Amino acid sequence: MRAFLVEKYGGAAGVRAADVPDPRVGAEDVLVEIQAAGVNPLDLRIRNGDFKAFLPYRLPLVLGNDLAGTVVRVGPSVTRFAVGDEVYARPGKDRIGTFAELLAVHQDDLAPKPATLTMTEAASLPLVALTAWQALVERAGVRPGQKVLVHAGAGGLGSIAVQLAKALGAHVATTVSTAKTGLARDLGADVVVDHRTQDFEEVLDGYDVVLDSLGGENLAKSLRVLRPGGIAVSVAGPPDPAFARELGLNPVLRLVMTALSFTTRRNAERRGVRYSFLFMKADGDQLRRLTPLIDAGRIRPVVDRVFPFDEALRAMEYVEQGRTKAGKVVLTMPPR
């Protein structure tokens, strides 16, 4: 099958298209013929080797963390899926590789594709929808009437998180650039802060939850808009000790992550708020819980641009250069 491989870490020069063996299908695996694959900033960070200390992938590695496609084979112990089913998934972190024609996915990581979506639309959702769910539902426990700030509300993650927070009954604020204020309101944001002309720290206060996807000074300021007892969940801030324990990292890496997040955690403690780093996990059951919201139109995908599979390198360059106007970039695969 055709796939895009990382042969060496460090940038676009280390990625190439290649013919590779078809995946092996385990007892609980579902072999999916991929029809569309989302392109995420995470793919670029994996390509660059940013996570090699705690995600020690063996090179060459097939990139890609989102898929939508059709089941073409199932392992002997699979009970949830049958050949011909249309599915979508974020495969487990140890089994990524959606920039390919086929992928074997554990049945627990897979879900039926929402009936109202095309394959392209469905492929844009799994990683960002699961991230939003795990941040807002699992970590923050968002309840009706709470105030939630979602940064970068027109981006791939932000556009879904704004809609999910509204579906959970929250009062939602978001930060966007001037050109994207209309989209943010269309997605349901109650308060839209134009980060080009406004400082969100000066206009927002007393928030229960912040979802941060930018890190750095943006995260530091986010702690200051939380009410006492509030929580900032970040996918871009420093990894914390809880994340190190979750991954079962060795004592040295645990100490490193404790040190990296020390300042952020100390600042949060001084303000009486909490900080949590999130590295999302594959979860087919959570996708199933999201699907009714999608099919009811309460969460809709935002697709910025579609590239053919052969132009995966150009699609990654497009994302890396920050040319995405809103939502996600998606690759579409030609029929086999």
Rounded mean pLDDT is 95
Strand content: 25-35%
Apparent shape: globular
> What summary fits the major beta sheet?
7 strands, mixed
Helix content: 25-40%
Distance between the termini: 9 Å
Total beta strands: 16
If you compute it from the alpha carbons, what radius of gyration comes out, rounded to the nearest whole angstrom? 20 Å
Low-confidence stretches: none
User: Which structural class should the secondary elements be placed in?
Assistant: alpha/beta
By DSSP (H or I, 4+ residues per run), the number of helices equals 12
The run of helices and strands is EEEHEEEEEHHEHEHEHEHEHHHEHEHE
Topology:
Elements: E1 2-6, E2 15-19, E3 29-39, H1 41-48, E4 61-62, E5 67-74, E6 86-89, E7 102-106, E8 110-112, H2 119-123, H3 126-139, E9 147-150, H4 156-167, E10 171-176, H5 181-186, E11 191-194, H6 200-203, E12 207-212, H7 216-224, E13 226-234, H8 241-247, H9 251-260, H10 262-270, E14 274-277, H11 284-295, E15 303-308, H12 312-320, E16 328-332
Parallel strand pairs: 9-10, 9-12, 10-11, 12-13, 13-14, 15-16
Antiparallel strand pairs: 1-2, 1-4, 3-5, 3-7, 3-16, 5-6, 6-8
General description of the model:
The longest helix has 14 residues. The strands form three sheets. Strands 3, 5, 6, 7, 8, 15 and 16 form a seven-stranded mixed beta sheet that branches. This protein has a six-stranded parallel beta sheet with strand order 11-10-9-12-13-14, sandwiched between helices. The protein is globular, with a radius of gyration of 20 Å. The protein is built from twelve helices and 16 strands. The N and C termini lie close together (9 Å). It has 336 residues and is an alpha/beta fold. Helices cover 31% and strands 26% of the residues. The model has no long low-confidence stretch (mean pLDDT 95). Helix 3 crosses helix 4 and helix 8 packs antiparallel against helix 9.
